[in-house]
Amino acid sequence: MKFTAQQIAGILEGDVVGNPDAEVSKLSKIEEGTEGSLTFLANPKYTSHIYTTKATVAIVNKSFTPEDTISTTLIKVDDAYKSFSKLLAYYNEVKNNKEGIEQPHFIANTASYGSGIYIGAFAYIGENVTIGNNVKIFPNSYIGDNVSIGDNTVVFAGAKIYSETIIGNNCVINSGAIIGADGFGFAPNEKGEYHKVPQIGNVILEDFVDIGAATTIDRATLGSTVIRRGVKLDNQIQIAHNVEIGKNTVIAAQTGVAGSTKIGENCQIGGQVGIVGHITIGNNVKIQAQSGIGRNVKDNEVLQGSPALPYSDYNKSYVHFKNLPKIVKQLNDIEK
Fold first, then answer.
1. Pick the catalytic residue: 195, 241, 278, 320?
2. Where are the domains of the chain?
3. Whole-structure pTM value
4. By the 8 A CB rule, do 230 and 265 touch?
5. Which parts of the chain sit beneath pLDDT 50?
6. Residue 72 has what DSSP assignment?
């Protein structure tokens, strides 16, 4: 797929400085630019590379003024970083803008779907599934019985969506994600043997939810596991049964949330955080990576550590922890 500098400038509402007919067909870092590639300069640390890059076209801020000769065609915009991000989104949209139904596939007679749909080869669409307009379901995906998928949602290759799941509009489910598997429900008998508790609830994803690759969201035992509007989940996250995550909360990779915990709105949760079950985390909470959360958390708290402490307390404690060998030696010297 080739684009000229003038076409790109039109998409970004920018101005071309150089050859408007210069063509690019790939993207590159500015320090690794090659002929036919498009790059960008946003961080001043990389300014020196604009004079040596072999990229054909570079996106720069309008405030940029060259101090030496530049062979690269420039596209000047208000914000180079935002413009490059916009271009990436546009490129992704074009790349993934597939339509039609590939062979082989299975679509149950009771399933229904809207216009502009794409269903890749070896996809399975179960009984009573409803799929909206412009939905993209890539190859080897599984959509179980009674699933509902809203408009403009993308299900990438190999994702598994179990029965009764409800997915809203403009969602993204990445490869290997599993939505609606059974929650971890087992009860011991008098012999200490564990028997499965049936998990008969479902999962609800509201609009504009992104689910990372290999992330799992368990169905509720009763009721629903709910992921609210605008939530973004990274790769390899475990969300247990009956969890609720408030709107616009973001969670980084390898975090685990145990059953029936409620997480508020606009929270930021780092990677490898462990959160116990049956607690409530308030709104606007920030949890640093590798923290362990074992209690209710109030609105606006910032936590770190395992068990987690308020962020400033953790930093103060860590200073003492680092100095512990020195402190012990001082105590021993005093005792002597």
1. 241
2. 3-95, 109-314
3. 0.82
4. no
5. none
6. S
